[in-house]
Design goal:
Helix content is 50%, strand content 15%. The strands form 2 sheets. A 3-stranded antiparallel sheet has the order 1-3-2, with helices on both faces. A two-stranded antiparallel sheet has the order 4-5. Helix 1 packs antiparallel against helix 9.
Amino acid sequence: MSEMDIMHQAAPTLAGIKAGSLFNCPYHDHQSLVEECVRMNRILVPKGIRLIPVRIMDDRVLVYIYRSKDIERILTDQKVKCLLEPYGYTNTHPTCCVAHLIHRLQQGDIFPHEVGIFLGYPIEDVIGFIEQRECKWIGCWKVYGDVEKAKQRFDQIHQCTTSYRMMVQQGIAMRSAIVTDEKRCYV
């Protein structure tokens, strides 16, 4: 996993417009993975972002990168608490919830649909997906709620990803591309 991989796959999280990102990257061996995660977290953690490998699958690793303050804010919402409780999220402390999510991601072939909460998707879209309702729109995720608001977010995410890919091409280091909480404009 390189800085380039993270900038390509998690640009909206690095830019502060998404609470988290989940992506696959190549996996070679456990020791290299641990070293890379430590190296990346030395850059990310001081900026309020954490990177955690959540599931190893043959030659790939599923990586979760998230903004701690965003997850903390999301988890204070009563609707979110009610949604997560039946899935075993009994302690709403962010660290405990992320640990439980990782546990659920590591269990078998069933992908926990509540993961959308930890990626910053709107609660009504996560609920709609879980309940298998008919969606109103498909973009970066399936939309069951406010389509116009979602389209605006999708456009932001697309523009952000394009900008970060250009930064990679220009050789800009990830450390310089991370938007800190102090410089964020909240959406």
